[in-house]
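Dear colleague,

As promised, here are the two records you asked about, laid out in our usual form so they can be pasted straight into your sheet.

NAME FIELD: protein one
SEQUENCE, THEN STRUCTURE:
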Amino acid sequence: MSDAIILRSVEDAQAAVLAHIVPLGTETVPLIATLGRTLAEDIRADINLPPFDNSAMDGFAVRHADVAAISDRPAILRVVGAVPAGGVATTAVEPGTVMRIMTGAPLPPGADLVVPFEDTDDRSTTSLRSEGRVRIFQAGEPGANVRRAGEDVRRDTLVVAARTVVTPGAIGVLASVGAANVQVYRRPKVAILATGDELVEVGSVPGPGQIRNSNGYANAAQVIQAGGEVLQLPIARDTAAQVRAQLEQGRDWGADLFLSSGGVSVGDYDVVKQVLTELGALDFWRVRMKPGKPLAFGHVLGIPLLGLPGNPVSAMLTFELFGRPALLKMSGRRTLFRSTITATVADRILDRGDRRQYLRVSMQQNGDEWIAHLTGNQGSGMLSSMLHADGLLIVPEDTPVVEPGTRLPVMMLGWPEVDPREEQPPSAGDDVCC
């Protein structure tokens, strides 16, 4: 039997796909354009953060020696100046004196702590402000309310490592160390091809025997969510000539991956496999999962092609398990697989049990326990079951009955990928904490 038609396990199929995928090249982009991208270089601090000792509060910069003896009576000190944020004190704080200081302003020489306004009489009707003095009722130890130079980040230290996914927090840190332009991995370019004589465009009214092209749009949205760029190829009718023409168009666009839906089963008009073997190579065809058994992977025109099933739920599920990890690897990511948690099943589930099932579930948290509820009809054509799905309940092979109360893994669709130490995709029996 050909290796391509052996029924593969999910893990073997994932490994086979990822073995043929490599990270793409890199490009330098403005910092604001890096959100969600993967860094391709280490970024080190060019300055200390903070760059100087500064006040963490609006208040008075004082000498601890002048306020250390405060008990029942306040310390009364002379106000000799003010330091706004962005300003610099021109004189030092001498014994018996203080300076007004705003949050973020450099600590003046001589001062070693900041007393907040609320611990003084500065804002009271009986203040000594008109006399140029202030009463201080309480004060902390040396260093109180002072942010020391370099206490957050020291100059020349690594602040964000290569292969890190850029978040808003990372952008803030990168901005603070002057990383105006940053090297990141290129976004994968994915050419999406929906095939079938029955398909019409979204804006058309389906005629007899026709359906709208939901797969093309759902898969495009998944690609964009995973950080890829999309080329929506025109619908290809069930002829080898049309499929070839659309694939050539994707190649000319510079596609890094072809993502097709339909045409990979065993019907008389399933021509994607035919074209795949004519213009490239078919690595494998079927996977031991439900839904999503007729999944094809190979290369065409020198470009990887992932052939998803035509049923809409199957197409979305197989993208999650195979397409998304491939795109993340292309994007330079180290963590490729969704987080998996253990949940209590709320419903009774019956099946032949010959293939691993991925069932759409909504999740309810009850204290420390997660409860998984099936989202309606689980047929592979019931696209509405994806609308309310928080995760995919994984029912292991050879499990014909799942009783309520059974604890099974759920792959969470809206959660981040698993810990970078997770080197292999989680199996149905794994209990991986998010």
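NAME FIELD: protein two
SEQUENCE, THEN STRUCTURE:
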Amino acid sequence: MQTPPSEDAAPRRLNLKEFAQRRRSLQGSVAVAELPRLAAALHADAGQLGRLRVHWSLRGSLRRDPAGAEQALVSLRVRGELPMTCQRCLQPSQQAVDDEVTLLLVDEEPELSAEELESAEEAYCSSHPVDVLELVEDQLILALPLVPMHDRCPQPLPAGEAPSGSAGSPGTSPFAVLAGLRKPGAH
């Protein structure tokens, strides 16, 4: 049974195992301002965060394992364009996020074998209801690039030039600059 799409409301308490067993699905979008941990990692002011939206979809399913037992799964997809700070030029950079994860629902935290650790699916303890927006926020944070950068910086530094505010000249060792700062009267 399909659940109608929801643009703004996400359940705050959802039993994922029941959701998967009923093969339900949900989708929606949320303002980034409602995701405080994600918002803290972005290069945007409060006004921008209120206008930025990310999209998500959650789909439940069942399958049989090799022993014939039924396994509950949920797939979560998150998408959006998020402003981050380019680590090369330190200017705002739009980063596209489009990530999907499949969670194998388990009743308790398992001891995982090496094979399970390398699986494309993640084991997720479903013994308690979840807040869908927290799940969405967690996945968005995991999907962010570790080192955000432009494909090509809009104003790259000329080769060999030190960033503004840096002491020294192109051929000067940074350690020589530090040594000069330690000398009395050097500022």
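A couple of things worth noting about protein two: The beta strands are 25-31, 53-64, 70-85, 92-106, 121-125. The chain has two domains: 16-156, 160-187.

Best,
R.
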